[in-house]
Amino acid sequence: MTSFPSQVPEYKVLPNVVARIIEHLTDRWLQTRQFITSEEGIGVLKCGLAYLLGSLATFIPVVAALLGPQEGKHIVATITVYFHPARSKGSMYKALICATLAFLYAAFISLTSMYITIYFHQRRMIELGHALVLIIFVGLGFGFLAWTKQRMSDPLVNVACSLASLALIVVLTKEGAIQRGSVSLAKVSQVLKMLLMGIGATMTVSFLVFPVSAQKKLRSNLAVATRSMAIMQSTITEAFLRRTQHDFQGFDYTGASTRLKKAHGELDKLLYETKLEQYVAGWERAHCHEEKLVQWAHGIVHTTGALHSSALLAFETLKRPKFADHPLAGPNANASTATRNEQQSATFAADVPILQAVDLGMLETNASGNVQPVSGQLDRVSDGLVPEGSLVTELFDSFVDRLGPSMRSLTLTLMNISAEIPLGLSLDNRVAMSPGSAATLTQAIEEYREAQKEAFGRLYREKCDMSIDTFEKEAYFKEVAAICAHFSYSLLKYGEQLGELLTILTDFQVATAGYHRKKSWSWIKFWRRDPSRSQYLARSNARLDPRPSLTEIAPGYHTELPGASSFERPSRLQPFRDTISRHIWRTLSFVRKDETIFASKVGVGAALFALPSFLSFTRPIYLYWKGEWGLVSYMLVCSMTIGASNTTGYARFLGTCIGALCSILVWSIAGSNAFGLALLGFVMAICTFYVSLLKGQGPLGRFIMLTYNLSVLYAFSLSQSSADEDPDERSGNNPDITKITLHRVAAVLSGCIWGIIVTRGVWPIRARKKLKNTLKLVWLRLGRIWESDPLARRITNPGGAALYMTPEDRRKMQSLLSDLESLRVAARYEIELNAPFPDTAYGKIIQHTQSIVDDLHALDLQLQGIPPSEQQLSLLRYTSPERQNLAGQISHLLGAIASSIAYACPPTHVDLSKAKHSRDRFLATIFMYRSGDETSSSALEETYSLLYTYVLVIDQIIGKMAGILVNVSRLSTGLEEGVVG
Fold it and tell me: E strand or H helix at 735, and its extent?
């Protein structure tokens, strides 16, 4: 029998459909309401409101009359699109400064060019005057704007340069005074009025409608960064204790990492905006404390990366032990010597000044009853019950059983304090910090130190009972102890830096108490210097590391022959010649820079594009097809690299087409009705700012509105003028929106195409090449850092701090790594016929390079301890030749990798085996020193712990370089080749 599916009655289907529709509409309404009440939604609404106010300069006859009879009143609305109000008050102050400088520059160039043409016109040489205007004021003037954009690399500066170019283009090429050889201040005054109206509308909306404080955003970002780092360090610590990396792929860790990256990337920008707000409001005394907070955030972000790096080092070591593989680990190894040395070191275990713990009672309980002694585990191995890989794991678990409670307790304390710190509060919302937070944290850190000292001492006292009869067992124990100490010390430094934050906040509260009654604007007195501010800057600029910077040359390289003056008397003209040579060299180096080359070709391209406006037989064509807007588009499209130009060119091309279609649609709906056009323009602004601000498609959204303004607002102005004005763009007495739009689209697209031609055809600057050069620079810097050998400086200056990377070096290195990411994004859009861009390979190279930087910072955390003892200095001197040889090998490898990617050659000449051999020799030297050390000390004494960690980090860096070599080989040959060594 055939069975038919049961059918739902119709009277039940309809309610289900209606319920689903209602549920869908309800969800959509909740999402819309959540967006409208969010910071992003309010920002989009403010932008639409500012655009509405800016468009009133075209729609209201009284306001339009103030701007004069000249066309171009839609520029007021265009200014509100570029200087939008979805920014903080500090950013608006900066926008005002940039706009003022842009107008002053445009006015200077415009008036000077007018007087130049008048001078030559009076002498009947106006053609020469036009040539000078094209070369100097168009070529050099626009080239300077392009150079400024690239040099400053600031969005607001870019907008100011775009507005300056817009004003210059209108005056120099369209207005006609320069072509006639006369002076006309009407257009200059109109540009000033439009600038004031546009900036005024934007600032009014920004300050009166849900104003945003940069200081509050700065504090909010600091709070987000602090809590994200607390989650990350808690996850890293727990993963370390459980010997698993899966937590790093969890939702909590990846989410916290994403939030940290976003918040940390905005700190410097928000700090500058906060500075402007505080200086205007008279709170300049509070700014130095804000700077300290941002500097602290930069430092602890690096510490978090170092903590993550030390955990990865532990995981890698547990998978593949390294110490037991060096040449002394043979069957003839002197086991009796190792046993004797460890018995001696056990008597010194109580003096080991290693880290800390919180719960001593829990630690005692675990150590006495719940933990199997290490000797018992080693005995099982000696009986052949546990394979070699399990030995390291069980040794690590023995350490973790004793160190775990103290680590977890400290981590919990750090999490609680991070959640309680009132970082998100500004001067207007002052809440006193909990007075017990600093004491709680200090107590937790001290207890952590004592518990760690006791835990390591107990482990080494138990080690006296172990049957260490092979070199491998001794090496495994030292290796596990080193990675535990390395991680513990990184965790300790994180806690100490959190304590520094509490100190900064306490000082901030004291310094800003009663700030409403102590406002001052002493910064206006620029001729006076604030002594306290100068002392703060001097302390901030003081370096922890006395070594010269990466760009300085060692004094020893400047040699002088003794008695040279007796053979040759220096010429009196020699100082003058040296000065001239130095200036020539600096000039040539400036000319060779990419920014100068970019500015030169932009200036030449602008002069060629503007040339038809100065020729009598081509000027009508230039004006008919609105060539001035093509030149504006050209200035907007030109970018430093081919990839960036392709990206912006495509976005602007698409934006122009969409804007043209929207213009025709809006005009067909509303016609010349001012109310309808204003309402539809507001809707257009809301949609385009949503695309620009929330979707990250700024060029696309701005060019949609630019084309809309050029078409619709101009058509409305034309409809309000006399019938004999611009007859070519009318259909009878009414504006022809199709023809108007066609002229604007043709002008904008011609400028975009010309910009891409100039960028790609004239001295092209490829993002791929800049990416390779930046990678080369990063690796050469890293090689220079390795050659510096701060361990050697500890010998010559035991009391001074010697680091691999100073804070300034870390800042420069992170800036270069950020440039690598932006160049990698730009390089994706460079079309090459030979091969697609190897994005994955470059991503892995940048990731490995970032890991090497984190490893160096983790080593710096170890170097920031107490000054070394005499015995420690003796070990450093004993191992100095091997250590310098190893550092030289690492530096040489980094240089060889840099040359491989710079010259696009396979890295077949790079041999990692030499570095591994130097590492083995260095490790063997340490063991030889220990075998002859009669005074003896614990294997975890600071010197041995530091050098053991040094070897482990070196091995990890060699592994990262092997990964880099594999990907560099893929870049140069396209094949997955093996690495020599």
Answer: strand 734-735
Contact 901, 775 (CB under 8 A): yes
Angle at 251 between CA 246 and CA 253, to 5 degrees: 70
- 73-91: pLDDT as tens digits: 888 998 999 888 999 999 9
Neighbours of 945 (CB within 10 A): 25
Contact 275, 212 (CB under 8 A): no
Does residue 900 contact residue 972 with C-beta atoms inside 8 Å? Answer: yes
Q: Which residue has the tokens 């060692």?
A: 554
∠ CA 302-303-306 to the nearest 5 degrees? Answer: 90
Instruction: State the CB neighbour count (10 A cutoff) for residue 220.
Output: 18
Q: Report the pLDDT value the prediction gives residue 47, as an integer from 0 to 100.
A: 93
Enter the pTM of the model: 0.80
Q: Judging by beta carbons within 10 Å of its beta carbon (0-12, 13-18, 19+), is residue 184 exposed, middle or buried? A: middle
Question: Could you give the residue ranges of the DSSP H alpha helices within 154-213?
Answer: 155-169, 177-180, 186-208
Going by C-beta distance under 8 Å and a sequence separation of 6 or more, which residues neighbour residue 97? Answer: none
pLDDT of 830 above 60: yes
Among 196-205, 393-402, 888-897, the minimum mean pLDDT is found in 393-402
Distance, CA of 836 to CA of 859 (rounded, Å):
38
Given a contact cutoff of 8 angstroms between Cβ atoms, the answer to whether 658 and 704 are in contact is: yes
Which residues 6+ apart lie within 8 Å of 847 measured at CB? Answer: none
- DSSP secondary structure, 318-341, as one string: HHS--GGGSTT-STT--HHHHHHH
Check: CB of residue 181 under 8 Å from CB of residue 117. Answer: yes
Residue 73 confidence (pLDDT): 83
Inter-axis angle of helices 39-59 and 75-82, nearest 10: 170
DSSP 8-state class, residue 520: B
CB count in 10 Å sphere of residue 973: 14
Over residues 484-527, the pLDDT tens digits come to 888 888 888 899 999 898 888 888 877 777 655 567 777 777 66
φ/ψ of residue 283, rounded to 5: -110, 35
Please name the amino acid found at residue 218: L
Total length of the chain: 981
Has residue 874 got a pLDDT over 70? yes
**Cα(643)–Cα(654) distance, integer angstroms:** 17
- Tell me the two tokens of residue 144: 């300077």
H or E segment and range at residue 81: helix 75-82
Rounded to the nearest 5°, which phi and psi values hold at 925?
-65, -40
DSSP 283-299: BGGGHHHHHHHHHHHHH
Kindly list the distances between the CA atom of residue 261 and the CA atoms of 87, 651, 852, 858, in Å, as whole numbers in the listed order: 20, 27, 19, 19
